[in-house]
Amino acid sequence: MLLAASTPGCVVLMVAVDTCTLAFRTDKLTKANVVATALFGDGAAACVVRAGETGIGDVEMWSQHMWPDTIDIMGWTVEPAGLGVVFDRAIPSFVRANILPAMRTVLQKSGIDIADVDRLACHPGGAKVLESLEQALSLSPLPS
To answer: Most buried among 21, 78, 96, 128, using CB within 10 Å?
Structure first.
């Protein structure tokens, strides 16, 4: 957005590309590696931004929440042949215990209550993780 704002009237194509499958290990065909490839596949998104004479629209709110010391729950190990995935069985219980407080903290920065949120888009972390999200956020399961 800064690039577009620096030259009013110009059109800028913003592109984000995620190539997670580059981390797939053909030498290590474990369940965790196959699941990681399925969950964290490649993706791309783009948008066109144009700055008017007075600038461009404002981002109303953004935030992030990180949990320190969780690399043993979900993350990557660096190995000589490439990255190794870490998926601990504690992920569903961690989600149940930690997602709602984190969401409340993030939303409070904009004065929004979790009850004001109409819809959620959640990363498909597998059935157990989705069930944990449903429980933690008091959501009704989607019909199968």
So the answer is: 96
